[in-house]
Amino acid sequence: MAANENKISLKLMVHKAKRQVAFAEADYTFLDTLFSIMTFPMSTIVRLLDKCPDQNLQALGSLKNLYKSLEELPECYFSNEESKFMMLNPRTSAYDHCRELKLNIDDTEPTKYFICERGCTEFRSAYFSTSIFPICPYCLKIMNREVKYDDSNDLLKIRSHRDDLDVFVPSLTTFIVTDDLNVMPNTLDFSIPLACDLGFTDSSQLEEMTFDIGREQMVILVKAALLFKNPLSYLVFHATHPSGVLVNPRLGTSIQLLTSNEDDPNPYFKKMTLRVAWQKSTSKFLFAEAEENFVDFLFGFLEIPLGTLIGKLMNGNTSFECLDNLFASISNMSVGRCINSEVRKDLLIKPALQWKYVSVNQIFPLDVSCFETYLEGCNRKLNDPRVKGSFLKAPTQFMLTDDLVITPLSSISGFSMLNKLKVPLNDVERHSVTIGIEEALKILKASLKSSSTFTDALLEEIIQRNWLCHFDF
């Protein structure tokens, strides 16, 4: 940890004998950072957790494998060189706001801006790129000239010259944060009943302590919120706390489906095909074969902001209880007294992707912003890195494992996998499955908690509803 790293002091009321945090008293510095994780795309969270010092317990199910598969997939499978960069490094419209936090844990590198050597400012629409690879659509030269962001002409500057440093929460407001990340106003009306509900009726049992939080501690807290029922206690006492007691039991993947208006001109009724192989004798998923459109969609899991995943896609029920609590707390906060503005609140609970280009294979209704910036004396918009709306080239075939390891399709790899699993060839059944919005949501939810994503999301219902029809390979 860097010696000059910003730290936040958190006041805690703890039961030392039980090694348990009753609640924390927090100001805007802590809450701004805690709330900011709602703006992070899932790829950012995966990357942060990979740097967490405690790797004995793994969080986020199969998403780590999905991220690694994207990272290791050769660039020849992408529509162009910029596509891979954008898929690995999505950011939301709150990204620049979060850079103003006293403690910012987002490790995404600041955006670099590239234009062609000519600048091509004579056209009505001028473009920029976030990498040196794309070709200028006008002069057909490589966009490899780096230019600096000129915020002096930016009408959407994050902050005027003012003294307060708050981003989401007013600087003079303090809150109570419970062990399971419920956030409420800092009053005795909440704190005393809270202590009683926890069984702490004798105030002499409770003791005040101060706990310093830096970047490392905040990442541990995020990971604990994904794994445990009481992440604050884990953060403060994890060295002696029996973690097995704290781990949430694995929950099912039942979800409330997104509703679609039939009059909506862009309904999310896309359908894709997944060819699956399973073991007949055990009804166990073995692997799947998919075209580039389905894999493009799966990689899109990584660009989903956490606030969108919890609120818009999962209706506040991800089975990550503490993060669901945090999202609900933000949603219920009043603008003015608890949140600086309606715009800032929307950045947290309705985060939009900063770059408007998402794959045409994205089934989920993600919000995007029309990001433009002022470079080289004119407004420029991001060059579209997609080809025919996709980030992956067509036609391409991929092989998928149950825990979302994705590799280019290889018959030899398929035989090797069957050999490793000790599955006889005559015990393999292959079928075709249609994936729509309902199945996609179940796959997403299972990927967050499980290392057997497709089995947990699809297999039981496929068998029950007899959805499988034999697929002739």
- Count the beta strands: 16
- Work out the helix count: 16
Which residues form runs of ≥5 with pLDDT under 50?
151-163, 244-254, 259-267, 467-473
- Strand order, largest beta sheet: 14-13-10-9-15-16
Distance between the termini: 54 Å
Beta-strand proportion: 15-25%
**What about the largest sheet?**
6 strands, antiparallel
C-alpha Rg (nearest Å) = 24 Å
Helix content: 25-40%
InterPro entries: DUF674 (IPR007750)
Pfam family, one: DUF674
Describe the structure concisely.
This protein has 473 residues and is of the alpha+beta class.
Structure description:
This protein has 473 residues and is an alpha+beta fold. The strands form 4 sheets. It has a 6-stranded antiparallel sheet, sandwiched between helices. It has a 5-stranded antiparallel sheet with strand order 7-6-2-1-8, sandwiched between helices. The chain has a 3-stranded mixed sheet with strand order 4-12-11, with no helix packed on it. The longest helix has 13 residues. Helix 15 packs across helix 16. It contains 16 helices and 16 strands. Helix content is 31%, strand content 17%.
